[in-house]
Amino acid sequence: MSAIKNDDVSLGRFISLVLRHEPSAAGIELDGEGWADVGELINGVCDTGRKLDMETLERIVHENNKKRYSFNEDKTKIRANQGHSIDVHIDMKIATPPDVLYHGTSAAFLDSIKEKGILKMSRQYVHLSKDIDTAVKVGKRHGKPVILVIDTAKMSADGFVFRISDNGVWQSEDIPWKYVNDIKYP
Ligand code: HQG
């Protein structure tokens, strides 16, 4: 049985907000590579009326289903592995993706995506999933899911660069509609 507790889930959501989108929500700042000081984070989160200590933070980092966060070696710093909307530089590995990757989105966005392509919107990169199940989960967050099948082999051949985060999420620049091979309605 997992050690994850209900409180950890909402705390995890708040930490995700702080480390990826809005550090000021806990009254802290991140450095240029997205790192927060662990002591400052714990104090800042506690100052919002939430309860957080090192043991809980370690549990959240360890149990997180998507491995969203990493500590540095001596656990004095913590950061999110991907998904930032704020201007920090996470040095992600440039790599050759599988020939096909998937983007889960909402049916409501399809017309706009057909016209403008898959855009980064508020994030630093477009996020791509390596399997359909994951893409369905991502798409469901926005409404009725649709899965766009992306011809990443063709994109690579055309010079697009792909990055993979420490937690295994593929990241790309904006994707023109012509690289969408197929649309799946799960
Ligand atoms: C859509 C979660 C209209 C795009 C997930 C997406 C993921 C357009 C939404 C990660 C568009 C942005 C990222 C266009 C793109 N017109 N809509 N031209 N181009 N969109 O949340 O990919 O739980 O920023 O399709 O698991 O949904 O946070 O991106 O639907 O890996 O760790 O605009 O977030 O991870 O939404 O999700 P998001 P996403 P975490």
TrEMBL record:
Gene3D superfamilies: 3.20.170.30, RNA 2'-phosphotransferase, Tpt1/KptA family, N-terminal domain
Keyword Membrane: no
Pfam families in the record: PTS_2-RNA
GO biological process terms held by the UniProt record: tRNA splicing, via endonucleolytic cleavage and ligation
Protein origin, superkingdom: Bacteria
GO-annotated molecular function: NAD+ poly-ADP-ribosyltransferase activity; tRNA 2'-phosphotransferase activity
Enzyme Commission number(s) from the entry: 2.7.1.-
Homology family: Belongs to the KptA/TPT1 family.
General function of this protein: Removes the 2'-phosphate from RNA via an intermediate in which the phosphate is ADP-ribosylated by NAD followed by a presumed transesterification to release the RNA and generate ADP-ribose 1''-2''-cyclic phosphate (APPR>P). May function as an ADP-ribosylase.
Protein name, per record: Probable RNA 2'-phosphotransferase
Source organism of this protein record: Ruminococcus albus
